[in-house]
Amino acid sequence: MIKLLLLGLFSFTVSAKAALDLAPVPSEYDGEGVRYTRLAFKDDKRQVLYVPPLNWSYHGSSSQLRLTPPSTFTRTDAVIDTVPLAAPLPLDEKAMAVISQQCMSALPPGSQEIKVVSEEFSPLLIAGNIPTYEVTASYQIYGETYVRSVLFANLAETQLRFKLSALKKDFNVLHRQFRASLISWQWVDPSTTALQKAPSETAVSRQE
What we know:
Elements: H1 2-7, E1 21-31, E2 34-43, E3 46-50, E4 57-60, E5 64-68, E6 77-84, H2 93-105, E7 112-121, E8 132-141, E9 144-154, E10 158-167, H3 168-181, E11 186-188, H4 190-193, H5 201-205
Antiparallel strand pairs: 1-2, 2-3, 3-11, 4-5, 5-6, 6-10, 7-8, 8-9, 9-10
């Protein structure tokens, strides 16, 4: 039951039966004089488009996309990954409590001074209509204070997790960039991607 609750944040029928593949196919476009990278992922017959934060590098596999901010920011980990859903379950107080506990237990071994900083339901909507739930925690390890946020979004058969871990002094600016980039996440018909840029790209181009 606990495993199902962890996976069942909120049901929303978006993805098709095939699993979302996060192996990225990049392209570039100009937005207000700035060159941006746009990543495309395969989701059955459709594509997912995503514009990472400006100047962040990336590499990915079928189930995980890892993002790296500019080298001026050290000891930062940003990951987008997928988890299959056994069944769609509603998000209730019990589920949220289990999710929060799971986020705490997933912190690096040896973490101390662990504190829940915030828990937010739908701080943003993925693709404009998919609810989210974010847990943010601080912790100390090797004498340094870190902050980690994990944003969850449930599709019909897949859970998306957007995780950012950074030094406390860097977290706010990186979190703002990372979370703002998520408004670009959307599903499209592949036949339209070559004809027009994503509607949200204008907003993304202004996020920096």
